[in-house]
Design goal:
- The protein folds into two domains: about 325 residues, Rossmann fold, CATH 3.40.50.1820; about 110 residues, no CATH class.
- About 30% of the residues lie in helices and about 15% in strands.
- The strands form four sheets. A nine-stranded mixed β-sheet has the order 2-3-4-7-6-8-9-10-11, sandwiched between helices. Strands 1-5 form a two-stranded antiparallel ribbon.
- Helix 3 links the parallel strand 8 and strand 9.
Length: about 500
């Protein structure tokens, strides 16, 4: 087997471009009644950024945008996604694209996180009459409108449209990308969709389920998470036939807290789990259910326990408050408002109240044929050890598309890569550094479908392990000889 390294297409064909108009002239140009250009200025080259035209403005009612147009342009457009509940323009990602020669843009999705934190932007009040429109902007509309505007600005500045347009996003950015693929397949030629929250409302509900499990004697001290992680990896690491500190596929390991963790004989102590904690673990791994036992959302896959302190147990200072805000301000119909708490979510009566928001927020339409017909390509990836966005709905969605369109036709334009040992978007013990953008560009521009990609585990800027990343449902299998840290000794099967 020979791994083929991708050429750096993202930095190719860089040519100094004489603009059709001066940068500052864009500020006076009309791009429609709903668009206001606040500024357009030529920015001199700096140590970390090339010379570029920086365009800022807003699309009605409040969707701010940034579009950066490099003087040395690669004839391509890249739009980048957001994270969490957005509310800020992803300038860091825009600048990363700019450095590679892309004309690049981002939106704050229609609200200011500093003024309207978490999901408060969606709650309709006399002071916020546009809450429902802001929710629609957050769900999908602002991204589409910014993509359309960006192309118009690009054509006005350079005198020609971009040859290719790409979407790159992870987490919320992954959800945004799939919304684009389903609702507006004409916007992008290729989409990199990472750790997508395709079932946002379900993922929020699942956090409420976990949060409720941590009340009372079910609370799991964060100090016990290293012990839990150790027990999980002792049980599951070698199931794939190779003990390498990575769980290839959590579905292949049945970890039962009632059987596989040490029980406290009497008082609670650091080296055991109480009956209440074991019951709580069973709920976390089992996933939300109603009182009749019906599964409402998948449980947590094994492998991410070392990061649960920021997401599932302990103080939960980040994710649970965000999810609670989303539920009470935007998801439940009608929204109960600020006084509501995640402890009040009823798993019998409240799930139907999420369906209206789900139609806006969850990109789950399996008919991707319009994107396929126009030649668009999708590379979707998720980490098997994702501690924030459960990876199972992403797999379910890919399989649903495959059943609808057929396995072969689906693989012709859409491939899913599950990364063993990768946390949310990146990091973890797996080989999470992959040139996803280069792969989708090769596919779009040269017709080279990604049969496998090179993944690296990086430490201090150096690759300490490489593995082939295989399109689902294939996995990388050790050939039985050679270093387990070198990709050449593995085959996708």
């Amino acid at each position: 087997m020979k791994l083929i390294l991708l050429l750096p297409l993202s930095a190719a064909a860089l040519l100094a471009t004489e603009p059709a108009v001066k940068c500052d002239a864009l500020a006076a140009k009309s791009f429609g009644e709903e668009v206001k250009i606040h500024s357009a200025s030529l920015v001199a080259a700096k140590a970390n950024l090339p010379e570029h035209c920086d365009v800022r403005g807003v699309i009605w009612p409040e969707a701010k945008f940034a579009i950066k147009l490099p003087t040395v342009w690669n004839d391509r457009f890249q739009m980048v996604g957001n994270g969490g509940t957005a509310g800020t323009i992803s300038i860091g990602a825009v600048d990363a694209a700019l450095r590679k020669g892309f004309a690049a843009s981002s939106t704050d999705t229609g609200h200011d996180a500093a003024k309207e934190p978490l999901a408060s932007f969606a709650y309709v009040t006399p002071e916020n009459p546009n809450g429902l429109r802001k929710l629609k902007d957050f769900a999908y509309l602002s991204v589409h409108e910014t993509a359309v505007l960006s192309k118009q600005v690009i054509e006005a500045y350079y005198g020609r449209a971009p040859k290719y347009s790409y979407w790159v996003g992870c987490s919320t950015g992954g959800r945004q990308g799939m919304q684009e693929a389903q609702r507006y397949p004409e916007d992008f030629n290729g989409l990199v969709i990472g750790a997508p929250g395709l079932y946002l409302t379900g993922n929020v509900m699942r956090r409420h389920w976990v949060g409720q499990s941590q009340l009372g004697d079910g609370a799991i001290p964060v100090e016990k998470l290293p012990l839990l992680a150790k027990l999980v990896y002792e049980k599951c690491d070698a199931v794939d036939g190779l003990q390498d500190g990575i769980i290839d596929d959590p579905r292949r390991c049945v970890f039962k807290p009632s059987r596989d963790v040490p029980k406290c004989a009497a008082a609670d102590s650091p080296d055991c789990f109480t009956a209440g904690q074991i019951e709580s673990l069973a709920k976390i791994y089992g996933g939300p259910r109603n009182s009749k036992g019906k599964q409402l959302f998948p449980g947590e896959p094994v492998g991410s326990e070392s990061l649960w302190s920021d997401n599932l147990v302990g103080p939960m200072k980040t994710v649970l408050p965000r999810s609670e805000s989303q539920m009470k301000m935007a998801i439940l119909d009608p929204p109960p408002g600020p006084s509501w708490s995640y402890t009040m979510f009823n798993f019998d009566t409240d799930p139907p109240r999420t369906l209206k928001a789900a139609a806006e927020l969850n990109p789950r339409n399996p008919d991707l044929s319009p994107l396929k017909i126009r030649g668009g390509k999708i590379i979707q990836y998720s980490g098997w050890a994702d501690q924030q966005v459960n990876p199972f709905p992403g797999i379910e969605y890919y399989e649903t598309v495959s059943k609808r369109l057929g396995n072969g036709p689906t693989r012709d334009f859409y491939r899913l890569f599950m990364v063993p040992g990768m946390f949310h978007c990146n990091g973890g013990p797996g080989c999470s550094t992959v040139d996803w953008l280069g792969a989708v560009m090769e596919w779009v521009e040269n017709g080279k479908a990604p049969a496998q990609l090179m993944g690296s585990h990086m430490e201090d800027g150096k690759a300490t392990r490489t593995r082939p990343m295989c399109p689902y449902p294939q996995v990388a299998k050790y050939n039985g000889a050679g270093s387990i840290d070198e990709a050449q000794n593995f085959t996708c099967k």
